């Protein structure tokens, strides 16, 4: 079958796009969105025939198993002709199989709730927390704490729980009951150079609980590694301390794995690096490597039982539905995506190649003082750019954009975090496919090398 766009010329397609499409995050007066037409493995082609090594997994950390996977397309096709949809109030074999396999990878978790995007998965989690507050605590324990620099999605309530002023400042008023606590970025320590940064950052979290009143706080939502806010890895001991504080005050721990989930960080889930056991885990991007839209809100049996163990006439089940949470293309793609990750040992590859890539980036850092910090885990790495490695003054935000542009000229697509710190757009982001080879890693590093050397010339 011909692709539907083959009946048009390149110029016609570009004109249609210009006339009709409002692109995400684009300043249309001055920016032109690239038109991407094909992908295979780690490579993607634009409409002009330019080929790129995509070290951004589709721009925003999605295509974990790479482009052009025929077996996923075939699994989705077979499912769609068999049964494309039935509302999530009914069971389907494919959703049952995927949920069951997913839970095998998440010891301690009990049930999977399906929806379509990271934001939606987080909204479900917030509704679960609010309903528990209503059921168990007369509505009192309704507050949800979120961390400065973390992002949890695009809806007004997800923005209400996002610690990035630059994403929020034009969209208030916000949903009440969401409270911010301080970030945990050691490179930007708010406590000065200290040995026990993780402990102090966790104490800052506890201080906010005490200020708000522990009997009013129902949950905390946290990214295991902050993504768009600057690729911020938690300091030593931090997440364990956060978990202990949650247990002390009977607060649910919700981990947002929308970016980190499905092998990206060299473990199946980011939280698994840090020895914690969340009550709620949300995930989206890598769940089906963006071959279909699917997201999951996964809860423990303890959380689920609060909704299940009541008589039907009390109508205290989870009063939520997501129309397209019943689409079967998502779980069909996700099941095959999971099989590929297991069969090709992609989690191990992400861990192993992540170490290799990080070592090469540290090599660049020793040659270019503009690279202030190299951080991240597995194939989720960030480079924070600074004017001066001693003062750590961030570079002007146009610099990161220039590096991204120079790398693209060199045939490599890299990303840039939204704003890595306060007002600075100064962190580059590398998130290649989990299939990354040594040769591809070297090409990414060569592109960065040539970009930095062009910049300082
Ligand atoms: N959580 C995190 C950590 C994210 O990075 C994102 C998206 N970048 C979301 C939630 C929202 O996901 P979506 O865009 O699919 O709604």
Automatic annotation (TrEMBL):
<keyword id="KW-0808">Transferase</keyword>
<dbReference type="InterPro" id="IPR049704">
    <property type="entry name" value="Aminotrans_3_PPA_site"/>
</dbReference>
<dbReference type="GO" id="GO:0008483">
    <property type="term" value="F:transaminase activity"/>
</dbReference>
<keyword id="KW-0663">Pyridoxal phosphate</keyword>
<dbReference type="InterPro" id="IPR015424">
    <property type="entry name" value="PyrdxlP-dep_Trfase"/>
</dbReference>
<comment type="similarity">
    <text>Belongs to the class-III pyridoxal-phosphate-dependent aminotransferase family.</text>
</comment>
<protein>
    <submittedName>
        <fullName>Aminotransferase class III-fold pyridoxal phosphate-dependent enzyme</fullName>
    </submittedName>
</protein>
<dbReference type="InterPro" id="IPR015422">
    <property type="entry name" value="PyrdxlP-dep_Trfase_small"/>
</dbReference>
<dbReference type="InterPro" id="IPR015421">
    <property type="entry name" value="PyrdxlP-dep_Trfase_major"/>
</dbReference>
<keyword id="KW-0032">Aminotransferase</keyword>
<dbReference type="Pfam" id="PF00202">
    <property type="entry name" value="Aminotran_3"/>
</dbReference>
<dbReference type="InterPro" id="IPR005814">
    <property type="entry name" value="Aminotrans_3"/>
</dbReference>
């Amino acid at each position: 079958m011909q692709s539907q766009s083959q009946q048009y010329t390149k110029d016609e397609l570009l004109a249609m796009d210009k006339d009709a499409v409002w692109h995400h995050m684009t300043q249309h007066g001055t920016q032109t969105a690239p038109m991407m037409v094909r992908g295979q493995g780690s490579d993607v082609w634009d409409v002009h025939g330019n080929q790129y090594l995509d070290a951004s997994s589709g721009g925003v950390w999605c295509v974990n198993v790479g482009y052009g996977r025929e077996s996923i397309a075939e699994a989705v096709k077979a499912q769609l002709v068999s049964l494309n949809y039935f509302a999530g109030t009914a069971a389907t074999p494919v959703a049952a199989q995927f949920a069951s396999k997913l839970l095998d990878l998440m010891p301690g978790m009990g049930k999977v709730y399906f929806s379509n995007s990271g934001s939606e998965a987080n909204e479900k989690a917030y509704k679960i927390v609010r309903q528990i507050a209503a059921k168990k605590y007369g509505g009192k324990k309704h507050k949800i704490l979120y961390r400065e620099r973390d992002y949890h999605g695009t809806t007004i309530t997800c923005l209400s729980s996002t610690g990035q002023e630059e994403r929020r400042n034009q969209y208030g008023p916000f949903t009440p009951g969401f409270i911010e606590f301080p970030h945990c970025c050691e490179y930007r320590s708010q406590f000065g150079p200290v040995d026990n940064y993780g402990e102090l950052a966790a104490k800052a979290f506890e201080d906010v609980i005490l200020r708000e009143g522990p009997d009013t706080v129902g949950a905390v939502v946290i990214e295991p590694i902050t993504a768009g806010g600057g690729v911020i890895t938690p300091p030593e001991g931090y997440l364990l301390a956060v978990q202990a504080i949650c247990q002390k005050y009977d607060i649910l721990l919700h981990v947002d794995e929308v970016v980190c989930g499905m092998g990206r960080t060299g473990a199946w889930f980011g939280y698994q690096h840090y020895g914690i056991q969340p009550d709620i885990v949300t995930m989206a991007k890598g769940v089906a490597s963006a071959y279909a839209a699917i997201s999951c809100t996964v809860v423990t049996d303890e959380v689920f039982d609060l909704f299940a163990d009541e008589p039907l006439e009390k109508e205290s089940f989870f009063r939520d539905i997501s129309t397209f949470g019943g689409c079967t293309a998502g779980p069909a793609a996700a099941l095959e995506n999971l099989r590929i990750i297991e069969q090709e040992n992609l989690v191990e590859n992400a861990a192993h190649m992540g170490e290799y890539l990080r070592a090469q980036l540290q090599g660049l850092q020793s040659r270019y003082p503009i690279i202030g910090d190299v951080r991240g885990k597995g194939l989720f790495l960030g480079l924070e750019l600074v004017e001066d490695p001693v003062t750590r003054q961030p570079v002007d935000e146009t610099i990161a954009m220039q590096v991204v542009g120079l790398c693209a000229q060199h045939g490599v697509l890299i990303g840039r975090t939204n704003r890595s710190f306060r007002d600075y757009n100064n962190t580059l982001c590398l998130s290649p496919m989990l299939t990354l080879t040594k040769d591809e890693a070297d090409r990414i590093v060569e592109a960065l090398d040539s970009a930095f050397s062009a910049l300082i010339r």
